[in-house]
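Hey, sorry to bother you again with one of my protein questions. A protein chain has come my way and I'm curious about its shape. I'm sending you its amino acid sequence along with the C-alpha cells. I owe you a coffee for this, so here goes:
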Amino acid sequence: MRGVSLKMKRVLPAIVLFFAAPLIAEYLLGSLPITMLGTLVVLGPMYGGGAILTREAVRRAGLGWPSIIVLALAYGVLEEGLVTQSLFNPNYLGLNQHLLQPEYIPVFGIGAWWTVFVLTLHAVWSIPVSIAMVEGLSAQSAPRPWLRGPGLALVAILFALGSISIARFTIREDAAHFVASRSQLASTAAIIVALIVLAFRLPQLSGVHGRRSAPLYSTAGLTALIAGSAFLIIPNQWGWWTVCLYLVLDVSVILLIRTWSRGKGWGPRHRLALSGGAALAYAWHAFVETPAVGRPNRAGNAVFAAGLLIALVAAALKTPVEVE
C-alpha cells in the first residue's frame, strides 16, 4: 500500500497538469465557457498531453526553461498549423472571425497578426504557465521527471489520439471542410522539427548568479500581469503596428527575465510569481472576452478566477524560497 501511495504521489502532478493546461488555455482565458467543460475529454489529451510531454522531455534531458518555451512554441505551431489549421483557414470553423485578414501575407497564406498572437498564447500561457503553476503545487518534485516509460508512452498515445480527434472534428465541422495545402503542411512540419531540435541544443544555464540581486517576487508578478494584459488588449486594428508591438513585447519580456534569472536570489518563487501574474492577466481578461464558441458566462469566469487564486496561494505556501 505504501508503494502505491508513493507512486500516486509521484504521478499526481502529471494528472493535475493534464487538466490544468486546457483549463488555463481555454477556460481561464474565456475562449470557452464553463458550460462547455465537457470538452475537456478531447482538450485534455491534446493540451495536457502536450504540456506533460514537453515538461518530461526537458526534465529528463536536464535542460531548463528556455527549452520548455521553445518546445511550447513547437506545440503551438503543431496545434494551429497541423491540428486545427487555423493559421491557414480564412474562415476557421465558419465563425466569421476573419483571423487572417489583419496583415495577410499571401505568399504564406497566413495572417501576421493571428500567427504572432496565437503562437505567443501557446508559447507563454498554454504550456509554460501551466507547467510552472503545477510545479509550484508540487515543489518537492519540480526538478525531477514525474513519469516513467509506461506512463510517458500512455500520455504520448493520448496526445496523438486527442490531436487526431480534434483535427477530424475541425475538418468535419468547418463550413468549407478546409484543409491546408501540401506545401503549407510540409512547411509547418519542418518548422516543428526545427524547433524541437533547437530546444534540445540550447545551452544550459550556468547557475552562476551575478552581482545584481533578483527582483522582488511582487515585482516579477506585477510585471508579468502588466505585460500579459498589454498583450491581450492591444487591438488588431492597428495592423502592422500591432504585430510589431507584439514582437517588441515578447522580446523585451524574454530579455528582462533572462537578466533577472542571472541575479542573486533568483529561485522557484520568482517563476511562480511570473506564471501567476501571466495567469491573472488571463483571468481578468476573461470577463471582457467573447467566447469563440457558446455564450459568455461571467459566473463561470469568476469560478475559474477563484480557482486560480486558490491554486496560487497553495503553490506559494509550498514553493521553497531557496535559490537554484
The beta strands are 104-105, 110-111.
